[in-house]
Prior knowledge:
3 domains; mainly beta; two-stranded antiparallel sheet
Amino acid sequence: MTVENASYISGLVAANPPGTDVISEGDNHLRLIKNVLKTSLPDVDQEAATIITKASAPTTQVRGTIWYDSGNDLLKINTATTGSTPSWATVNDAAPWASATAVAGLNAFRYTLGDGTLALADATLTTFPFASLNGGYDVDSGANFNTGTYTFTVPTTGKYYFHMCVRPIAADSPYENFDFYIYKNSAA
Length: 188
């Protein structure tokens, strides 16, 4: 039998080599497996950390191991030296990807215009009236976003990331240029 063609682990055929294969084909299979591993894991030049999903902490301790604690719905990273007693740093509380409820310790907010439209006058600055998300949920973990003035008050010194996405409706074709401003202390 000939060796299958594979570049990545997903391309390997678990049934190969069959028991009827001649022994001289074994070295070709070993070379294939080595090439697939080197291609699939090109940056692994030492013991590799893994992602483990279970309710109890992993027993093998490697620095950088990511553990999804499924019993408590928490994401944790081992920050201890490999082989020593683990030190799990919790990345999140209350799994923000699983729920839109407030997340303790996280300064985050999310609001949208929803499915509605906003008529914009030409050459006129317009404040976007952000409101509840579709389905009636918002994220404003620190209650720092004012839905009356559409302003966010920074709770602590640090770096903040803001994201905005706007889609003009087909009636605005050909699409015009849009300028967006974020104001800090009333200055653009």
